[in-house]
Amino acid sequence: MHLSKEEHKKWKRMGFKNIYYASHRSGKKRGVAILIPNKLGFEFTGEHKDKEGRFVLVKGKMEQEDVTLCNIYAPPGSSTGFFKEIFSLIAAESVGTCICAGDFNLLLHPKWDTTSRDRRGTKLEKQVKTMLSELGLIDIWRYLHKNERKFTFYSARHDMHSRIDYFFTFSKDLHRVKDCIIGQRDLSDHSGLTMKIGFKASPRNTLWRLNTGLLNNDSFKREMGQELKTYLELNDNGTVNATILWDAAKAYLRGKIIAKCAVLKKVRAKKLSDLQENLGKLEQLHAVTRCPQVLEQMRPVKQEIHKILSEEIEKKLKYNRQWCYEAGPKAARLLSWRLRWQQQENTIHKVRNLKTNKITNKVEEIQRAFEEYYTELYTQPDKADEHKIQNFLSSLDLPFIGKQQNEKLIREISAEEINIGISKLKTFKAPGCDGFPPEWYRQMREPLIPLLKASFNYTLSGGALPPSWREAYLSVIPKAGKDKTDPRGYRPISVLNIDYKLFAAILAKRLSTLMPTLIEEDQTGFIGNRQTHDNIRRAIHIIDQILKGKTGTVLIGLDAEKAYNTVGWEFLFHVLKRFGLCDRFIQCIRMIYMSPTARIKVNGSLSNRIILQRGCRQGCPLSPLLFSLFIEPLAQCIREETRLEGVTTGNVENKICLYADDMLVALGNPEEGIPLLMEMLEEYGRLSGYRLNIQKTQILTFFFNPSRQLVAKCRFGWHQSQMEYLGILLTKDLALLYEVNYNRVNKKIYEDLERWGLLHLDLGSRVRAIKINILPKLLYLFAALPVEVPAKQFREWDMDCSRFIWGNKRPRVRYATLQLPGEWGGMALPCFEDYYLAAQIRPLVCWCNSKYEAKWKDIELSLMDFPIQSVLGSLESLPQAYQMQNFCVSFSLKKWADVIKIFGLNREIGLLGWPAYLPRFLPALLDHKFREWSRHGITTICMIVKHGEVINFEDMCQIYEISREDFYRYLQVRSFFQKEVRIPDADVSGVIQIFMDAYGENIIRGTIGKVYRSFIAMKKTSTRYVSHRWEKEAGITISEEDWSQMWKNVLSTTNSLTWRDFGWKNLIRFFITPKQKSKISGSGASCWRECGEVAAGCFHVFWSCPKLKTFWEEIKQLVLDVLEVTLDFSFSTMYLGNIPEDINKRDSYLLKIIMVACKKAITKCWLQTSPPTRKLVIDIINTIHHMELITFSLRLQKEKGERLWERWDRYTSRD
Questions:
Q1: Range of the domain at 276
Q2: Cβ of 1046: how many Cβ atoms within 10 Å?
Q3: Which of 42, 140, 249, 1026 fits a disulfide with 36 by CB distance 3.0 to 4.6 angstroms?
């Protein structure tokens, strides 16, 4: 029923205390209401209502639990925009249990929810269904009545029944729902819809965690430091071992912190109560006396109340991870949707008990099902025969580390190592069972490091582990594409104590330096300078060779079942011994794995403890390295087995590729090899716990038809045309790689853009969505696959992204401008084509780096009888080289030729030329002595060039140990360099410099990103066209240096992306002025402030309008009052942001905020005849002030924030 405001008020006269409503301003056209019975004890905390009477959202507490109630009426013909608005509101504002109900006037399931013959569903209905799915809201009646047909509305006019009234809630609260019933249609044309829901929460078993906001208080830190000192004076008497001393110290400090927090809470509550009481008295006094002095007395009281409430807000921000300010309101809305979706994904509302095979949605039974499953999973089956393990390992040719390497492993842990480890801890991460988060160690490192050092070294020397290290809790994360009702479809992540992770990280760092010598290049998982792309490129080489040889071959993708969780500890310890690790280090690992316990965290509650008897804890820094060592004997066994034939490419035989447990095996004799491989895996499993998941094992056959016996014995999918390995679909026909992989990703990109397009997002948020959501998907393919991507495809991606960014409206900023880095005036929108080229160039950079080791590189370097790298510096050699019959190499060289052509590098590539193999360098064709230079290290010309000139002969002899008889050759090279190659150092392009650095034997990290940035720099695109427009309108001159500094100032305006984006919009001339509008629509260009200007452009609207003169004069005085300095109050300074160099950092920070607030004030009065006021600017600055201080506090930089805002606080206190 739709009631007017006056009609709604009648409910209160009927006795309802809790009535919340929204009415249409015209009366009974539409309206919604929420009535809550008085007996429920509802505690109101907030409300949002629609002026059109379409929805009302109420927040409060019921049975001491947070609850959000929302009643919605969607009038017939409602637009997508209305649903975006209401769902965005729910995403951003709802707390606790959310119950959303109402008349939506649309069908979510046309097949079941109407008697109409037309059941196709409208575009709006599909969009609303997508939004509900993305947000994680569940249609309760349909969830409980899967394929039933029942209706809530009857249209006499169309003689049609339909279900258009709904109850929704988040999936995390489904266990609360008892029933949902469609009633009779007795009083209106709608049936009653009833949902029963329970609010009495089950008791939750949770853990204490430190409130990191306390660490902003220096007195608290000093007090804790003093408490620790007192504790040590009483207990550190030499009779207590260091680990017990440390663990007891944590317990002691935890007790002190809990007591301190209780006292602080009481003091804060008392102070807030007193302040509010005092404020109430002052307000009453002012209402009677109207005395200005009373207002002055109220101001500091309000500030104190504001400060206390801000601390509470900060705490909620921290624990709910609502980065509303830093990410920006619109971006926060995106984040809110994303978090709701993630919460829905991670919430387990029903699960199958594997013992009874029954599905339950009861919280206690869900927890019990997981507890039983993980108890069984981590229970060690029959113990393997140690003698057999030793015999198996001793039969393998495995590397062995020596005494010096072992000494480095077990040397005393230094305070510096612990300090470095603490500095690397990521903040805002969940603590372990002891409740101490990373921030505690970062802020209290000085008193804690000595204790940590003693404890760590006691453990490393063979002493006991701190008892608390044996405890952890398992956070279960659903695996993509798995059945969420099956406990096996979740990944258990161990959340460990931070002190344990520090210790493990130090050991892992030491061990990681030895891993490249212990683990073959076949294994690329978690080994330094090895990547997934290495395995994929190698797999393509293998397929290419198979297709050329046309011999019967198979590729098998082996899938280990629960690989990390089934690692047998005794086998692991024997493996460590076989690799030569010393007894002391192994004993340390043994202690880590001695009777550990875990509790499973399901929907925020902890189960009983279970004892772990096997497995590597996912979440432990040591686990990836230990697993690589654990699986290496299996890989070595496959390598050494002569009865297993691999695929030979160049001089390299390829049998196995690994990325952690993802294994790809190539067999050239499949009929005999596959049964043998299965036997080897079974034997390895008996010894180690490794277990093959035969259902998920994939196979690709080439020129091979398996026998009936083999098919019966090995039930693989023998007729697959493709298989997935490390996220890439490998095909029998390499020509199909582009189609099968990019089509799949294109579909996902289109779905993402369409889904994100339903959200209310601003420009910056949309650009960032592309960077964090779309770019990684494409970049992975670019780096993994050496395949041609058509130019048309790049244009389509750019058009799709542009439409998404601008909401299918006309762009206001050039696409190429958006692709510039932020410091150049862009928004760092990715240029997919440049990223693609950069990814294709990466293997060529790896060719040139002698320290980069990979099997695919060995294959490619063995393809020619001369160094293949030498063709990179020779245009004459490229055509012949990239026509070679090798899929990967020929393609990469073609792309290098494209880069040379696009960016005009014809002369520069001479620096990469090898004198001994350069066709243009005629002396080398006649004198083969130059090839000896290569053996001495003089490979490329760039190796002997410094500061744009060839180094002198004496230095060359000393560095490369060449003969003095080579002087004439030196002169020949120098002459060639001066005529054909030389360019000033400053003119060497970034991409050539990257190759030169690779030859200099520097391990280049982030190669693709560096090459991409060099491409952007070489394009010479800039925003100078924008500065020229400002110059023309304002009659000023802007230098390159000033223009660059203006952009840097925009990037450093506040901690908020929203305000930075807003500053960017002002400087880039984003806003449509009357002058621009007249060119688009032909309308008048007069200023809306009625000042008489007939060509109102950006300069006029924001600065020179006569109506703004008083405003800017007030701002000039404001700047003087706040900063207490006189500065050049010009358009260039105050609007464009060319801040004088003599302004100190603190004043510059405030000045940028004042400037952005002024611009915001102007846009808030857009199209209004009245100009903005000084008061509006001050209100905006106060809003920024409030959120900036909360942000600094969250970062544990409260003092820094207070220093930066000191002048503003002083100004507001006296104003």
A1: 212-304
A2: 22
A3: 42
